[in-house]
Amino acid sequence: MPTLSAAHAPAAPTLSAAPAPAAPTLSAAHAPAATTQTITPAPAVSTLSAAPAPAVPTLSAAHAPAVPTLSAAHAPAATTLSAAHAPAATTQTITPAPAVPTLSAAHAPAVSTLSAAPAPAVPTLSAAHAPAATTQTITPAPAAPTLSVAHTPRAGSSPACRGRRQRIGCLREPGRGDDAGRFTPDRRPAGEPGARVITGELKNKVDRLWTTFWNNGISNPLTVIEQISYLLFLKRLDDEELRRYKSANRLKRTPTGLRFGPDQQDLRWSKIAQMTDPEAMLAVVRDKAFPYIKALGGAEGETSYARHMKDAVFMIGSPALLETVVDQIGALPLHDRDTQGDLYEYMLSKLTTAGTNGQFRTPRHIIQMMVRMVDPKPSVRETVCDPACGTAGFLVVAAEHVRDAMIMGDTTLRAHYGGGMFHGYDFDATMLRIGSMNMMMHGIGDPDIEARDSLSEDAAGDDGSYTVVLANPPFKGSVQKSTIAKDLSRVVKTSKTELLFLVQMLRILKAGGRAAVIVPDGVLFGSSKAHKAVRKLLVEDHKLDGVVSMPSGVFKPYAGVSTAVLLFTKTGAGGTDRVWFYDMQADGFSLDDKRQPVDADDIPEIVAQWAARGTAGEGDRKGKWFTVPKAEIAGQGYDLSINRYKEIEYEEVEYEAPAVIIGKLEKLQAEIAGDLAKLKGMLQ
Description:
nine-stranded mixed β-sheet; two-stranded antiparallel ribbon; single chain; globular; 34% helix; 20 helices; alpha/beta
């Protein structure tokens, strides 16, 4: 039996030399399920002396002549009671038989963890005190699986209590639990700023959610996306509400900025998710909660959000379907604030139109890199635009970046932040709704998300309107020449969207405005007149600042195209001196379809070297970054592909002579023939 010292087992009763009032005598009647350890005969109770072996109970012959001294050598078959095995061993009785082992630290490594230090607190059980405690019951082992200082639970705790405290502590943590007490672990990979693509377990959950809609008659993919977006928006509203309550409680203040009034508490997701009557749940969501989120943007026509949501329809008409969908959405680890875009991206990948429209969403960590490089600042009242905003991912990250640097006490800046700083355009009604909801969730009370084709004449009125442009325009698309804005056609005669968008971004930027744009590699080295004209325009008429070449796996599993980030400043009078190039080889994730986190990540170095590019010199063309003078780029036909200028070192590889290789093959073949002959002999 292991010696339980006060230091190692605070939860176990302590038997002192005095009559032990704190150690109750538990009989079999009171604890039939507990492990019972009986010392018989009672008068011959062993004395636990600290002198011979402080951590090992010693059975002295003076006190117990009828009890033999048992070592590990005499009892090899003794059961070792560890935390993992104790529940299955209901009764262990020590009798004066040779089967009772003396458990020392050296012979019982599987016993509960024992401290190597001497145990001065070990009680000495004399014959005077032992008869009153003839039966000693050990409580069920699972309550104290490890009796070490580092792992021993606090006195009075139990697995059930600890579980309740854990859930209570997570009740108000957005994305980790809800008022029903269901605990959802945070599955974000270590070191990742935010989930970017849906893979693994989350992918399977979204597939099941999709199948649920399909089996209940809602098969249009865009309809499924819209209905999921409405419910996700309702859940995120409640998550934000819980966050405000939690922050106010921590600061001992009254919560502010609440979206749900006292008479609207039944509209919160945490309340809806607890409803047990599907009919009542449908009535609340359809007749009260959905009209509530439609009206968040004010009266119809007052804001872009209200205009986009006026035609929104809640199409879940089955109580059973709604109940199932609510449960499945509640099980999603929605820790990322831009998860609606991730869901849309994954579902869009199922559509055959995804590749045609070029609607592939930019991974969040790439957006964060681009925003940090452009660095929009609130203090100079900058305006940020994404002319192909989709779910407004660029605008969301830019808003977070600006908010972190903003002086919250400046009411003028706060008004600019909430109303006139961020602008986005798209012509997909679903994207306009999702983008508007996304921006509202990030504190933009009146998001300027407008229905507009950025390449048409409709966008002609915003020339020179913005100081920062962040975008990932559609790749490999084409538009009808008759619909292209005339001022774009005058600059470059093409119908390729990736080229037209670059010209459009130069048009909407103010003089001195900055842009970071993702383009396919073809833009960098394409040989057509249009490709060369756009590159020459950037280098000669404006200021091309940098080119970041990205690996082809960045957009997997949705697309395998090779891309680059162009960073430029609108001047209208040239200004390109040297162009900064960086060869990104890793982005922190595997470059296959799984996109699992890996250690290799060039993004921190890209941001750091970009910030220091004015003082870091020309770099090394054999390394990852370097600068190239404008004259050299012009001499190469304005080719912007990094391989045109990077110096590649080739290592000399020596191969064996063909005769040597053939000899090795012959030897290997002979060994194979010999093995086959042996196998044939065995079969005979």
